[in-house]
Amino acid sequence: MRIMGLDVGSVTVGVAISDELGWTAQGIETITINERAKQFGYDRVKELVAEYNVKKNCSRLAQKYE
């Protein structure tokens, strides 16, 4: 079972996919989003879910630490 991790920011969404056992994950893509134009990359996330047969997801809001 694969798990998708989403690191959601205001400009990009980082996407990682786990191995089949769900033990490790690798970053596979960074999706550019545009909040003002209401383009959030949903279609691309759906494509990746289908391509990798994702069964679960884990999301977090990206934060800038200064």
What do you see in this structure?
This protein is an alpha+beta fold. The mean pLDDT is 92. 17% of the residues lie in helices and 45% in strands. A hairpin with a 3-residue loop joins strand 1 and strand 2 (12-18). It has a single domain, classed as 2-Layer Sandwich (Nucleotidyltransferase, domain 5), CATH 3.30.420.140. The protein has one helix at 42-52, and strands spanning 2-8, 12-18, 25-32, 54-61.
User: How can the largest sheet be summarized?
Assistant: 4 strands, mixed
The number of domains: 1
Assign the CATH class. Alpha Beta
Q: How far do the termini sit from each other? A: 36 Å
CATH level 4 superfamily:
YqgF/RNase H-like domain
Number of helices: 1
Overall, the morphology is globular
SSE string, helices as H and strands as E? EEEHE
Mean pLDDT, as a whole number? 92
Could you say what the CATH architecture is? 2-Layer Sandwich
- The count of DSSP E runs of length 2 or more, i.e. the number of strands, is 4
Sheet/helix structural class: alpha+beta
Give the low-pLDDT segments.
none
CATH fold descriptor: Nucleotidyltransferase, domain 5
The strand line-up of the biggest sheet is 3-2-1-4
**Share of helix among residues?**
10-25%
Calculate Rg over CA atoms: 12 Å
Strand content: over 45%
Oligomeric nature of the chains: single chain
Question: What is the topology?
Answer:
Layout: E1 2-8, E2 12-18, E3 25-32, H1 42-52, E4 54-61
Parallel strand pairs: 1-4
Antiparallel strand pairs: 1-2, 2-3
Give a short summary of the structure.
The chain is of the alpha+beta class. The protein has one helix at 42-52, and strands at 2-8, 12-18, 25-32, 54-61. It has a single domain (2-59), classed as YqgF/RNase H-like domain (Nucleotidyltransferase, domain 5).
